[in-house]
Amino acid sequence: MPGDYYETLGVPRDADKEEIKRAYRRLARKYHPDVNKEAGAEERFKEINRAYEILSEPETRSRYDKFGEAGVAGGAGVGAEYGDFGGFTDIFETIFGGFGNMGAGGATRRRSGPTRGDDLRLDFKLKFKEAVFGGEKEIRIRHLETCQTCQGSGAKSGTGSKTCTTCSGAGQVRRATRTPFGTFAQVSTCPTCNGTGEVIEEKCEVCGGVGRKQETKKLKITIPPGVDNNNRLRVASEGDAGLKGGPPGDLYVYITVEADEEFKRDGFDIKSDLTVSYLQAILGSTLKVTTVDGPEDLVLPAGTQPNTVLTLQSKGVPKLGSPTLRGDHLFTIKVSIPTRINAEERELLEKLAKMKGDGQGKGGLEGFFNLFQK
């Protein structure tokens, strides 16, 4: 009585079709009687072949899962005979890959009609403010365009193409080789027509029979507000032209944003440092600050401490797809402590230090200034 077919192939009961195929190929190579001369190899190979025939077909696998061997008894035979090499062709096509749908000349016919062109990539660098506000930019690209003289056919005006005599129009050639395991076919692209199945009678003098020409082109693209590093813009139909008049591919523009000396981006917020004097920090002030929109007023409250973050709302980066919604501009306050002061300033500061009880005489200034170095 046969054993469990899943155990025979060494796969779980929920294995998919590809997993079953891989297991079968591995075991078939190992136990084929023309390779393995050990006792029992032939019987083992029969079991493997039987298991694969049952489990590789959804209908027979379903019956086997429900009813076991009784559900498939008489439904499938052992399969190919392997007494001679010629009868084992199907098995080896399963193991090593078949030859596909054969056309003229025994090779797979390649598509010789129009094909879509390749997509292209362009790396494009923007300044910080250009990325924030977007706008129209001019770029230059080199891509393949359809030859206007031959309209992409590659043939000289008044001539055409004919069926390739090397591959009989198949686009591929097949070479058979006999091995100890049987006859194998090697399929490769036809060297005469490069897989098209056709050869041009007379080549176009402008494109040399290719049907496309390398051209440099200027384009204007629209940068949306708020783009950031590694954002990708798609420019439709500006890639390489397709073969034989096929549609062009697309152009993909990858954005890189240059670092700015003053501004840093954090998501949709902009961050910068703002240095103020210790007197401004103590007394408060209204300051003119620089934003991506230009000068703006920022209120510095009295008694502002070092590293306080003050916010100007909606002065950050526009959100992609919603340019009216913007992040904020965040200012981190840095307090500047003077390293040298004149005699009058010192006298006033020493009086202030005495009033605040921060020390006596000249030495009291050290404690006073330390307040702004936290």
TrEMBL record:
CXXCXGXG motif repeats lie at residues 147-154, 164-171, 190-197, 204-211. Residues 4-68 form the J domain. Its main location: cytoplasm. Signal peptide: none annotated. PROSITE patterns: DNAJ_2, ZF_CR. Keywords: Chaperone, Cytoplasm, DNA replication, Metal-binding, Repeat, Stress response, Zinc, Zinc-finger. GO terms for molecular function: ATP binding; heat shock protein binding; unfolded protein binding; zinc ion binding. Binds 2 Zn(2+) ions per monomer. Zn(2+) 1 binds at residues 147, 150, 204, 207. Its cofactor is Zn(2+). GO terms for biological process: DNA replication; protein refolding; response to heat. It is found in: Cytoplasm. GO terms for cellular component: cytoplasm. A zinc finger (CR-type) spans 134-216. SUPFAM superfamilies: Chaperone J-domain, DnaJ/Hsp40 cysteine-rich domain, HSP40/DnaJ peptide-binding domain. The J domain is necessary and sufficient to stimulate DnaK ATPase activity. Zinc center 1 plays an important role in the autonomous, DnaK-independent chaperone activity of DnaJ. Zinc center 2 is essential for interaction with DnaK and for DnaJ activity. Homodimer. Participates actively in the response to hyperosmotic and heat shock by preventing the aggregation of stress-denatured proteins and by disaggregating proteins, also in an autonomous, DnaK-independent fashion. Unfolded proteins bind initially to DnaJ; upon interaction with the DnaJ-bound protein, DnaK hydrolyzes its bound ATP, resulting in the formation of a stable complex. GrpE releases ADP from DnaK; ATP binding to DnaK triggers the release of the substrate protein, thus completing the reaction cycle. This is Chaperone protein DnaJ. It comes from Aphanothece hegewaldii CCALA 016.
